[in-house]
Write a structure and sequence with these properties.
Radius of gyration: 34 Å
Helix content: 55-70%
Largest sheet: 4 strands, antiparallel
Strand order of the largest sheet: 3-6-2-7
Mean pLDDT: 82
Structural class: alpha+beta
């Protein structure tokens, strides 16, 4: 692999690129077309992000639950809070809405006020019969008032299911076919059928309808992601192109760079399709990320080309040096950036792993595109004019570089004091960082469906399903009175927890059976006592096949039962406490030798997924630091140089973590990404600086002080340009409606800004302060990674010219 970084390799690569320009452009065009053909394989995710590995204990328990009860997230709820609903016109419209929804093949059944059933005792047999709660076909205000009173005061089974505990809101539960929940049919139905029906009802009655439920939330959340992809790409192109033109004042340079990154975006979509990965909230960020990360490559290449033109005016020589000199260091910077993303592959989370694979592949791809396209296109064009080179001597950028040089030269102690102070304050802030496992925290808060989520959370006391599955270890064991009483005791305990909604289970049906046996007197809505057990349970068992309500809470064998509740948006610490309390109560109520009880559900799996990712954050970040330390060791073969290069890049991460603590930004799936991404990108500046530093050491005969200032003056401009582009490029994500994407963009931007200052001030200061410790020629003279100096390139060019002259002489001799 050493040959990859040898002087001869890069000079040979430069000759290959410039001598095979047409061929390489055709190859790039061919690959682009082939990848564009893969776009048809792109598909948007129809399932929730599973943050846990497939073989994780929590996932296995959830799969066991799904095995017996099927997909839990198949219910859409639509609700209203309006007293005029119980007027003849509006009530008929509400019933008709449920009937229209029921007619679609995607719907199994609906439970609404208009089709509610109640139990009546049959005289001819030991069973109940189901009769309509509302039998009228023509309504008056008086009849509806009577029905309303009976529903709220005499049918407690429907509390939390149809009417809210405060008796101010009514909702309809829409049970979708479980087989289509994770297919494209579900979003098509929601967008094309359900939403228009709701809008039609709102227009007819003037009543605001709130809609929620996992199928509905997932559909509109995914739609928001899709809508934002184009917005991100457009905004990233606009911001980076404006900055690029501001720096270079050249339409030609700007257009070449935009052309390069647009090809990179096309490749990104093609690779997603080729690998057949779904577009998720994370992979949707990759195309704009490629723009933001690709532009700095263009800046380094074009800036170096213009510097060479200004130096000697030879276009061919300039392009040769751009590829040989900048390509070497730029490869290293892209490898470190890619490694920052690649660490997510090892998290065992499918969501993060796919993100890491696609991002790292595309970062290397955009490097290759930049290295090939920019020199090739410039080779067909005349050299830049004098006006295009003026930016190299702009007073404001020169003043900035002069300021950094003065600070390093005269105020190193102040730099160290400031760095240590920031470090201490940031460590204090880090202790205030919380962990958030909220599934709705990162959802777009300005959308209508987010307001609807908060409506149901307030009115029906919960939004995310939490499940308890009880295995009685024998068939038909659920309907034994002992089991029912244990379930009822657990439900009463759970109902007392403020964050949980009223639990629902088969217990409600048995209580309803007793109420029906006693002529629907609500005072008898309770489990049967020991004397009533025999005949009441026989009534209930004979009636279970007549209600679809029970199908959702007892499996077909009667061995497994579920208790369903919904939990409010709750912070992680409180959620952990609730989980521990419920498990403790389960262990008290259900003897383990007779029952196996699992606590599961989407709320739990997401919380545990967040915790799992936080634990893996340390692993992925440590791995990124280790990989980049290996790169540094490969470059310089010096432990002290590894420390000097890592300190300026770790400090910005600690400062960002401190800011998160002080600003109340929690660790969550979106903000977890910040550290590995920012570290992988920020270390690029360090590599560019140290690469130039080594070149200057050789040119200045190992005079460290002189070499540091020379490296600072030359790399300062490019580092400033790229850092500003990255800062504003990542800031583009702040226009997102997703809180997690906004946090990701802002935090990475802040980290990269601190990293630029750290690499321009702290890094050279450390090199100067440790001058004697690192002033060892063997440390830097012949590193494994040969970073090309001007002298080495000139020697290589002279050898090439001699070879070409000899070839010409040989040709003349053969002709003679």
């Amino acid at each position: 692999m050493n040959k990859l970084f040898s002087i001869g390799f890069w000079s040979a690569l430069a000759r290959f690129i410039l001598r095979n320009r047409i061929f390489l452009l055709i190859v790039i065009a061919g690959i682009t077309v082939l990848l564009a053909l893969q776009w048809k394989n792109m598909r948007f995710s129809t399932t929730e992000a599973n943050l846990l590995p497939d073989d994780h204990e929590i996932n296995l328990e959830y799969k066991e639950f799904l095995k017996h009860f099927g997909e839990e997230g198949n219910v859409i709820v639509i609700g209203v809070k309006d007293s005029t609903l119980f007027t003849p016109k509006n009530f008929v419209a509400w019933n008709n809405l449920s009937k229209k929804i029921q007619q679609y093949k995607e719907i199994d059944f609906t439970i609404s006020v208009g089709n509610l059933l109640k139990l009546e005792k049959r005289e001819d047999t030991t069973a109940f019969r189901l009769v309509p709660f509302i039998s009228d076909t023509i309504f008056t205000n008086e009849s509806l008032s009577k029905y309303k009173d009976e529903l709220f005061n005499k049918l407690p089974i429907y509390e939390g299911l149809i009417y809210s505990p405060n008796k101010k809101s009514i909702r309809t539960a829409i049970y979708m076919n479980k087989g289509i929940i994770n297919t494209p049919i579900r979003p098509a139905f929601v967008i094309n059928n359900l939403i228009p029906l709701i809008e039609e009802f709102e227009k007819e009655t003037g009543i605001k309808v709130h809609a929620s439920g996992m199928p509905y939330i997932r559909t509109l959340n995914a739609k928001s992601i899709i809508d934002e992809i184009g917005m991100f790409i457009g905004a990233a192109l606009l911001v980076t192109s404006l900055l690029f033109y501001f720096f270079f004042r050249s339409f030609r340079a700007t257009l070449i760079s935009m052309f390069t990154v647009i090809i990179g975006v096309m490749w990104a979509f093609g690779i997603l399709g080729l690998l057949q990965y779904e577009i998720t909230v994370l992979t949707a960020l990759i195309p704009p990320l490629i723009i933001v990360i690709g532009i700095p490559n263009c800046i380094f290449l074009i800036n170096k080309y213009q510097q060479e033109i200004k130096l000697h005016g030879n276009k061919a020589k300039s392009l040769q040096r751009v590829i040989a000199k900048v390509g070497n260091a730029t490869l290293m910077t892209n490898l470190t950036t890619a490694s920052g993303f690649a660490t997510f592959i090892l998290t065992n989370s499918k969501l993060l792993s796919e993100f890491g694979v696609v991002a790292s592949i595309n970062i290397i791809a955009i490097f290759l595109l930049s290295l090939f396209i920019i020199p090739i296109i410039y080779s067909f064009m005349p050299p830049p004019k004098e006006k295009h080179l003026k930016h190299l001597g702009k007073k404001w950028i020169t003043s900035f570089v002069d300021w950094t040089e003065r600070m390093v030269k005269n105020h190193r102690v102040g730099i160290y004091i400031t760095s240590v102070a920031l470090l201490c304050v940031s460590i204090i802030g880090m202790y205030n960082i919380g962990i958030s496992g909220s599934i709705i925290e990162d959802m777009p808060k300005k959308t209508g469906f987010f307001e609807d989520i908060k409506f149901f959370e307030k009115e029906f006391e919960g939004i995310m399903p939490l499940e308890v599955m009880i295995d009685t270890k024998r068939k038909k064991g659920v309907m034994s009175l002992a089991t029912l009483k244990r379930m009822d005791k657990l439900q009463n305990f759970m109902h007392e927890i403020p964050e949980l909604s009223k639990p629902l289970s088969v217990v409600e049906l048995v209580k309803f059976s007793k109420q029906a046996y006693y002529n629907n007197n609500p005072e008898y809505y309770q489990l049967p006592n020991s004397q009533e057990r025999t005949f009441l349970l026989s009534y209930a068992k004979n009636s279970v096949n007549n209600t679809r309500f029970l199908d959702n809470y007892v499996d077909s064998t009667g061995q497994y039962a579920r208790i369903t509740t919904f939990i409010k948006d709750t912070d992680t610490k409180r959620f952990d406490r609730i989980e521990d309390d419920i498990k403790t109560e389960i262990n008290k109520i259900f003897p383990p030798e007779r029952y196996t009880v699992l606590l599961t559900g989407k709320a739990l799996t997401f919380q545990k997924g967040t915790r799992y990712l936080v634990n893996n954050l340390v692993l992925s970040l440590s791995l990124a630091i280790f990989l980049i330390a290996l790169f540094m060791a490969w470059m310089f073969r010096s432990f002290k140089m590894i420390l000097i290069s890592l300190i300026p890049n770790l400090l910005p991460l600690i400062i960002t973590a401190g800011l998160m603590g002080f600003m109340g930004v929690p660790i969550k799936p979106s903000t977890i990404l910040v550290f590995s991404i920012a570290f992988g990108i920020s270390v690029d500046d360090t590599i560019h600086f140290l690469a130039k530093y080594r070149q200057e050491l050789i040119a200045n005969h190992w005079k460290i002080r002189k070499s540091v200032y020379a490296a600072l003056r030359e790399t300062g401009v490019s580092m400033f340009y790229t850092s500003i582009v990255l800062f504003f490029g990542f800031s583009v994500f702040s226009i997102s409606s997703f809180g997690g994407t906004v946090a990701l963009g802002i935090l990475v931007s802040i980290t990269l800004l601190f990293a630029m200052l750290s690499n321009l001030l702290l890094l050279p200061s450390l090199l100067l302060s440790l001058e004697r410790s690192i002033a060892n020629k063997e440390t830097l003279k012949k590193p494994t990674l040969q970073i090309l100096s001007d002298t080495e390139i000139e020697e290589e060019e002279e050898e090439e010219e001699e070879e070409e002259d000899n070839d010409d002489d040989d040709d003349k001799e053969r002709k003679n």
